[in-house]
Design a protein that fits this description.
By secondary structure, the chain is α/β, with parallel strands linked by helices. It is built from 6 helices and 5 strands. The chain has one domain: Response regulator (Rossmann fold, 3-Layer(aba) Sandwich), CATH 3.40.50.2300. Keywords: Phosphoprotein.
Length: 129
C-alpha cells in the first residue's frame, strides 16, 4: 500500500514499485483517512504486508495515521510493516518515527531500487508473527 497526497509522488513511487516487481498487488491512496477505512474493513488476507506512508498530508497526516493504526487489533498490526516515505528532513519527525514499533524504516522520497532492496532485506529478516 502506498499512501501519499501528492499525485506526482504517488505516481513516481508507484511506477518504481511496479518496475522493481516489489509486490504483486499495490493499493494506492491519496488520503490517510481512506487508507485507514480500507484497512478497517478489509479481510485480513487483503491487508498489505507493507505500507509506504507519507508524513505530510492534510486531514489525517502520517503521525495521525500511525496513532490510529496503533489501535488496530494485533492480528492486523503484526501482519503489516510500515515504511515512512517522506520529503521531511526534520530530525524531530525522524526521532518520533524511529521509536514507533509499527515502523521498520524511515526513507526520503523518492523510492528507488536500492531503497526497495533495503526494505526487502528488512522484511526477510523480520521474525514471523
Amino acid at each position: 500500500m502506498l499512501i501519499d497526497d501528492n499525485e506526482i509522488d504517488l505516481f513516481i513511487n508507484q511506477k518504481v514499485i511496479e518496475f522493481c516487481h516489489f509486490t504483486k498487488r499495490l493499493l494506492t491512496y491519496s488520503s490517510g483517512r481512506e487508507a485507514l477505512e480500507y484497512l478497517l474493513s478489509a479481510p485480513v488476507v487483503d491487508i498489505p504486508d507493507i505500507i509506504f506512508l507519507d508524513l505530510n498530508m492534510p486531514v489525517v497526516d502520517g503521525f495521525r495515521f500511525l496513532y490510529e493504526f496503533s489501535k488496530f487489533p494485533d492480528h492486523v498490526r503484526n501482519k503489516v510493516s510500515i515504511v515512512v516515505l517522506t520529503s521531511s528532513d526534520n530530525m524531530r519527525d525522524k526521532e518520533k518515527i524511529e521509536v514507533n514499533p509499527d515502523v521498520i524504516k524511515f526513507l526520503s522520497k523518492p523510492l528507488n531500487d536500492q531503497k526497495l532492496e533495503q526494505i526487502r532485506v528488512l522484511k526477510e529478516n523480520q521474525p514471523s508473527n
